[in-house]
Amino acid sequence: MAQNKKKKFSVRKLIYNDKYLIAMSVLAAVVIWIVTSISLSPETTKKIVVPVAVDFSDTLAEQLGIQYFDNTDITVEVTVSCKKYLAKDIDEDDIVAELQTGTVTSVGYHSVPITVNPGEGQDFSIVSYYPTSVDGYYDVYDEQVLPVDINFTNTNFTADGYVAGQTILSDENVTVEGPKTYVSRVKNVSASIELDNNLTESKLVELDPVAIDEYGNKVDYVKIREQLTANVPVLKVQELEPSVSFINAPANIMDIVNISYSVKSIEAGVLETAGSETLNLGDIDFSEVQIGKNEFTFDIDSINGVTALDGTQEVKVTVTVPSDFASKTLYITRNDITPAALSGYNLKVVSLQKSQITIIASEEELDSITTDDLVMTCDIDVADGDEITIGTSAYPISFAINNNKTAWVYGTYNANVEITKAE
Questions:
Q1: pTM of the entire predicted model
Q2: Residue 3: which residues within 8 A CB-CB, separation 6 or more?
Q3: What is the Cβ-side half-sphere exposure of residue 15, based on CA atoms within 13 angstroms?
Q4: 279 in Cβ contact with 241 (< 8 Å)
Q5: C-beta of residue 392 within 8 angstroms of C-beta of residue 414
Q6: Is residue 51 reached through a cis peptide bond, with omega within 30 degrees of 0 on the bond before it?
Q7: Rounded Cα gap, residues 298 and 290, in angstroms
Q8: pLDDT (tens digit, 0 to 9) for every residue of the chain, 423 residues total?
């Protein structure tokens, strides 16, 4: 059986192989073309807009607390020289432009040079750039808090039968901040409001407050930190009868006592949505009402959404308890008090700050009222999110009187309540 002979590799045969020579020639031509194109590629220039970094790190200015207070959006137009085939790929990220803050050693106006260099590993050169320096103001940061003055460009903006109420600002005071030299020149902050005419509804306005110097000129370089809005109430003019509400009083209190007011009516501007012909001045707590005349004073300016137009600043309300009413003392103990339930906690009344309470009622009912008629609770009033105070603290006692028509408890009373966490 004949054996196959191994074919020997022959360089001569490979050289004289036409297909091989053609492939090698093409490959060599491509390599030579690439190398020649790269080495002989023409130079070109390209202009790129580059942001300038403002950095005070490791400078004397940083140690002195000096900052730059002009426009920090600084850009420089840079002309680079590079191989033509590289130009399209070069952008602002490949160039480092920096403000030379190390040259700033004092407050004031300075012309600070800009340096521009290729980024690390970049294969191009900087031909030129503009600007080569930037003028700006340098100073120490400062701030001050000032009230805001409101100026209406048109004061007569309400329709007939309506008036403007007290303007409410989102912030009564604002923070003026900026370079210390200029912040010290600010004397007040002013904001202008321009509204349409013949308004019948309130308006919420965004404000653009301005810092003003002692001569009424706008102060440069400073800013107002807060975003400010103004609520301008537009109120309907009405003639309103004063009224009050009662707490801790018998249900039929209006049949028991005499209520009188220092004025019969008040001409006022009120929000039209109120839809009432009476003006509620506030609450009268009968724990403060004794036999005879009791006088309470209400400030009109403290009532939200109401502006008195007739000059009325306050209203005196007189509550007169008839002379056929009397008072007596009842004794209570801590066991008479029921603390309100509080989820997750145990409550226990441990003592009373006063063991005697005063009852006022008509003489015909007073004698029949005993401690058994009293419902006494100690309310632990905790708002959502507030922490519960573990331990013993004083809390007010609230009273209700069963089976009577004329009685109330006079005075305020507290119980000491021990609070522990439930197991």
A1: 0.64
A2: none
A3: 3
A4: yes
A5: no
A6: no
A7: 19
A8: 445 555 555 555 555 556 666 666 667 666 666 555 555 568 899 999 999 999 999 999 999 999 999 887 899 999 999 888 888 889 999 999 999 999 999 999 999 999 999 998 888 999 999 999 999 999 999 999 999 999 999 888 999 999 988 899 999 999 999 999 999 999 999 999 999 999 999 999 999 999 999 999 999 999 999 999 999 999 999 999 999 999 999 988 999 999 999 999 999 998 876 667 899 999 999 999 999 999 999 999 888 888 899 999 999 999 999 999 999 999 999 999 988 778 888 888 999 999 999 999 999 999 999 999 999 998 777 666 667 888 998 899 999 998 878 999 999 999 999 988 887
d(CA 155, CA 195): 9
Cα–Cα distance measured from residue 19 to residue 28, given in angstroms and rounded to the nearest whole number:
14
Strand partners, 176: 144, 224
**Cβ–Cβ contacts within 10 Å for residue 319, how many?**
22
The amino acid occupying position 127 is V
β-sheet with 203-206: strand ranges across: 168-169, 229-232, 203-206
Residue 121: left if φ>0, alpha if ψ -120 to 50, beta else—which one? left
Q: Which CA distances in Å does 14 have to 18, 24, 155, 394?
A: 9, 11, 103, 109
- How far, in Å, CA of 235 to CA of 268, rounded? 8
Q: Which tokens in the block code for residue 403?
A: 């089976």
Give me the residue label for tokens 């923070």. 175
Cα 100 to Cα 53, 65, 133, distances in angstroms:
9, 16, 9
